[in-house]
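re: that chain from earlier
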Amino acid sequence: MTSTPDAALSRRALLVDLSRAGCAALMLSAPHATRAVDQSAAARAQPDTETLHILRSRIELQFAPGFSKPAQQAARTWAITSADAVARYFGRFPVPKVELLLVPEEGSGVRSGVTYAEPSLLMRIRLGRETTEAQFIDDWVLVHEMVHLAIPRIPRAQNWLHEGIATYVESVARGRVGLVSAETVWREWATAMPQGQPQAGDAGLDHTPTWGRTYWGGAMFCLLADVELLKRSALRTGLQQALQGVLAAGGQYGVPWTVERILATGDAAVGQTVLTELYERMKASAEPIDLAGLWRELGTTGGTLNDQAPLANVRRAILA
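^ sequence. v structure.
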């Protein structure tokens, strides 16, 4: 999930609040502590910080107070694995440097994530203290937030493109490195993607900011683009190469671009006009997509993968 401008301006206050909360809790339990002890408590309330090196990029990993050492080790492995999946998809990690702040909560599981662009790039993830290794492996949230780093900021009306790319690429990137099976990716898309279909009163992707159209309508746009790009290029180039072209041209979350510029840059990178054409078709139209027909063509109907389907080679190329 990307941040709103107001959230971006205030996110630095989060670390201050965390430090104050840690100090306040200690002071309430020991009201007569000395000034030196109070200063020590403040120091302990600061996040534990270390640097992860992903190819030529650096991730400043910050653990807010409250994580055990084993939990930190498990989260560190999860961060490296997630970053590796994203770097493999884009050919490099999207940005030279980013902060990753992990905030503990009771229980287990990866709870939520948000990415900020200002005053510097930061991803904040709320994470259960008892999160298991299996839950880390199954998580998609961190990869989703890391994918946001590879796309320039865009006007709020077109946030569907940002969330759609993050939703779609997150599954592809994780599938390609074996964190999730191809069968699972296609089964989950078949279940979730219909939520992106236009509903009554829909006015197209640019004018219908509902949850379903923002996340799954955007993901559906990406799938349609990927299929068409691969078909037209005889499997040589797809959405991956188009997005790599955007990144190579300087497009990443630290800079603002228009949707038209993002799509035109991606098209130019692969010598096509698919992205721009599809945007013109879907930005203000409530035309439903024949997903059932698409699943049959790709060979994913019924939860099994059919290698005799007309577009089975395209399906395989998407997760290759």
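Confidence is low (pLDDT under 50) at residues 5-43.
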